[in-house]
Amino acid sequence: MNYRYILLFFLISYNSFSQNKNNYQIRTIAFYNVENLFDTLNDSLKRDDDRTPNGKDQWTKKRYLKKIENTSKVITEIGAKITNTSPDIIGLCEIENLQVIEDLISHPNLITKNYGIIHFNSPDERGIDVALLYKKNIFLPDAFVSHRLLLETKEGYRDYTRDQLVVSGFLDNDKIHFIVNHWPSRSGGEVRSKPNRLAAAKLNKRIIDSISRTEVLPKIISMGDLNDDPTDDSLKKILRTAGKKNKLEDGDLYNPMEKLYKKGVGSLAYKDKWFLFDQFFMTKPLTEPINKQYTFWKTGVYNPTYLITPNGRYQGYPLRTYAGGSYTGGYSDHFPVYIYLIRKIE
Fold it and tell me: Which 3-state string (H, E, C) describes 157-196?
């Protein structure tokens, strides 16, 4: 390791203790599938009957408030080891409506963080949406839109799923575009459901290409629960993601999660196998250090001990709200993921 990289490592490490005493600013971008954050009300237009007091899950106000408390606690801690604060930008999925997000950011754990919300209702049959939270004193949104993913069943009927949310704005005066995703699930099997995720990847690419046609070298970060791993066709063939920054060609996207996945790191588990469905990928300008502008530093999966099931059939898995049909009072079936952006400041 040469002297320049040793010096940069020292400065970044020092920044984790006192950012105002050196020349670097670090921002945390997070994504969290919060696993069915539903209110307790029965909405006749949604398949939310299970998450009601008289439904299968016996989803009472007490359990709802516990879910809000648990989720808010996790959010306060993501990235805090380096920045000493909660994430500056947070993508969320599996939230039922605007009200549950407002309840979340109003919890005492988060109320002082001054989060704003960007959310649209999706046509998903279960009524779950995606959303973006942002610290109002750090990020200034100037445009946002929800893109509909149009799918059909083999019988020719509309298959309703989540929209893709695009939010553009200024992170400390640095223009960045964020895309929040929750791609179609693997219900019915990975192979059978694969075309839906390929369609989601194509929509994501169209969004990125559209931004790139109107802006020179845009900084775009796409995040979400993709229900695919970093090496699947949706990422590698449709979006042309690469796991190494020095291998990027024009039009390629950098996926820092690919390296983690190849090391066996996962964000969720099923049948004793780990998957890394929760991902970030980004355009090339975010991989190249530019004076006073943000660049990608590193990524991770946030999985402290208390988020892990300690024993039983699901030992080692993420500690869920429900497991095996029983209420466990946990957090989510996914671990949150995050990236750090870093820039040099005066």
Answer: CEECCCCEEEEEEEECCEEEEEEEEECCCCCCCHHHHHHH
Euclidean distance between CA atoms 320 and 66, whole angstroms: 12
Question: Structure tokens of 50?
Answer: 């299970």
Which residues on neighbouring strands pair with residue 144, listed in sequence order?
Answer: 167
Q: For residue 131, what are the CA distances in angstroms to 118, 150, 180, 334, 338?
A: 6, 19, 7, 17, 16
pLDDT digits (tens, 9 = 90+) for 249-301: 889 999 999 999 999 999 999 999 999 999 999 999 999 988 789 999 999 99
Residues β-bridged to residue 302: none
**CA dihedral sign, ordered 76, 57, 117, 110:** negative
What does the angle CA 329 – CA 335 – CA 336 come to, to the nearest 5 degrees? 115
User: Cβ(220)–Cβ(169) under 8 Å?
Assistant: no
- pLDDT tens for 212-259 read 999 999 999 999 999 999 999 999 999 999 999 988 988 999 999 999
Higher pLDDT, 4 or 213: 213
Nearest to 261 by CA among 236, 248, 243: 243
| Residues facing residue 131 across a β-bridge | 92, 119
* Residues 185, 191, 196, 202, CA torsion sign: positive
Q: Roughly what angle, to the nearest 10 degrees, separates helices 61-77 and 98-105?
A: 60
CB of 287 within 8 A of CB of 296? yes
